[in-house]
Structures are given as structure tokens and as C-alpha cells.
Amino acid sequence: MKPSHPRTRIQRRNRETILEAALDVFSQQGFRGATLDQIARKAGLSKPNLLYYFPSKEAMHETLLAGLLDTWLAPLRALDPEGEPLDEILGYVHRKLLMSRDFPRESRLFANEILQGAERIRPTLEGELKSLVDETAAVIAGWARAGRIAPVDPYHLIFSIWALTQHYADFDVQVRAVLGEDKEDPFEGADRHLAMLFRRLLAP
């Protein structure tokens, strides 16, 4: 088989345009609610042109999820077992909150996939994600046993961090509606509040 030709600059740009449009549509409509016609309109391309680059809606969705999951795991991978426990955990909270601020569509894409049964990412959840969480939970449990942080269930601590940080992306409209337009950036207030909350929870 002959090797495929490298993509031209226009082809690379069109792929990026399609994936950007698909991310918008999937994050708003979910996988089941999204259509190729919606994505094509958002991308400003014809449906046949869309299908030249991606053979199906599934192919676009899988491409987005594959890129997202690596990004999603990075903040947890950055937690240093040799670091100061409270600083490492608060640093993880901060990084997760920054992800919600900087990647809200990706957060909603992930949430929609989970809510719809995680058919396309279950192997990653049960494999790579579970292994990483198991390793991190063991580190946190070790810190608690050594008295370096307060006793805490490490898995539920991680779940709490996910819930309290991703809320600001997944429920952004609700957060901003309740706070009102005259309030500060919700992420600045959230950063201070969550640091105080977890510091009080975990201080030995």
C-alpha cells in the first residue's frame, strides 16, 4: 500500500474548522442530538465536503474525544507524589478550575458523553483513567496515613474536585445568571473559595 500523501495547508485548515464546528455542536446538542447538517452549517462547508474529511459523525466525535481525554488527564498526572501534599492537591484543584474556564465546550462534550452512557470512551474510563485515579488515590491515602493531611476518602476527594470545578463549565449559564453581570469573573471567586474549602478540609 502506498503511503498517504501529507495533508495540504488547506486540508489541515478545513479539518480544524470542521472539528471546531463539531465541538460547538456536540457540546450543545450531545452526540445523539447533533447532526451532520448542523456541523456543516457551523463549519460553513457543504455536507459532501464534510464527509470528504470525516466519513461519519462518529468519526468526528471520536477524534474530539481522543484529543480531549489526553488533555483531561494532564492536571492529575501533574500531581507530584514527592511534593507538599496540601500544595499538590490545591494545585490540582486550581488546574481543574482553569480547564473549566479555558475549555468549557470540551467539558460539556465530556459530560454529555458520560450522561449518554459513555459508549465511546468506556474503555478509557475503565483503563487509563481508572489506573491514574488508583495511583493518585494511593498517594493521597499515604499522605493521610502519615498525618500530612486530614483523614479523607481519596476517591471521593477526587470526585468532589471534579464536581466542584467542572460545575463552572457545565453550568456556566446558571452560574452567571445567579451571580449577575455586575459580579466579578466567577472563576476568580471560585478559585479563592475552593482553595479555602479544601485547605480547611485537608489541613492536618
Automatic annotation (TrEMBL):
The keyword Endoplasmic reticulum does not apply. Residues 12-72 form the HTH tetR-type domain. InterPro entries: Homeodomain-like_sf, HTH-type_TetR-like_transc_reg, HTH_TetR, Tet_transcr_reg_TetR-rel_C_sf, Tscrpt_reg_YcdC_C. Keywords: DNA-binding. It holds the Pfam family TetR_C_3. The keyword DNA-binding applies. PROSITE patterns: HTH_TETR_2. It comes from the Bacteria. Residues 35-54 bind DNA. This is TetR family transcriptional regulator C-terminal domain-containing protein. It comes from Rhodovulum sulfidophilum.
